[in-house]
Amino acid sequence: MKILSEYYNSNLNTVFKLGIPETNDEWDAYYNLRYEILRKPWNQPASSVRVDDDATALHYCLIHDYEMIGICRLHFNTETEAQIRFFGITEQWRNHRLGDIMLKHAEDICTQNNISKIFLQARENAVPFYERNGYKLIEKTHLLFNLIQHYAMSKVLVG
Question: Which of 64, 93, 133, 152 could form a disulfide with 138 if both were Cys (CB 3.0 to 4.6 A apart)?
Fold first, then answer.
């Protein structure tokens, strides 16, 4: 795992690391976590976590004690807009502001690459998280798996 940074969470009295998978085993763990968080609860196939443009996206994860607990994928849609997809934290680590670490990293990468806007499709239960982080609700969009309402959201970045 290529470690990008470490974060100490005083409320939890522990250190979290932000990293990029490098080995086949790490990539397998990354895609397995994407499946466990974002597809398995809705009885979707494991193959549904891999998409055609994964090879051109940036992927990173949040780690605690050598265990991957969060995942994020960032893709540059245009020269000025990026999109976050496949973003999630394992249930036991939610509501500790750990998603903020991954989101801030995505925003920093965008700023470093002169990207001025981030777009995403948020699940209904994640809308308050993104709003707390400065994302604006655009519109109600699709119903994933005929179960999960999504909302288009975006944030304009100032560098």
Answer: 152
Name the residue among 75, 67, 16 with its Cα closest to residue 51.
75
Q: Which domain holds residue 85?
A: 2-156
Average confidence score pLDDT of the chain: 94
As for how many domains the chain has, the answer is 1
Contact 6, 15 (CB under 8 A): yes
What CATH code is carried by the domain that includes residue 80? Answer: 3.40.630.30
Residue 142's pLDDT band (cuts 50, 70, 90):
confident
Contact 18, 5 (CB under 8 A): yes
Task: Report the distance separating Cα 2 and Cα 106, nearest Å.
Answer: 16
Cross-strand bridge partners of residue 85: 73
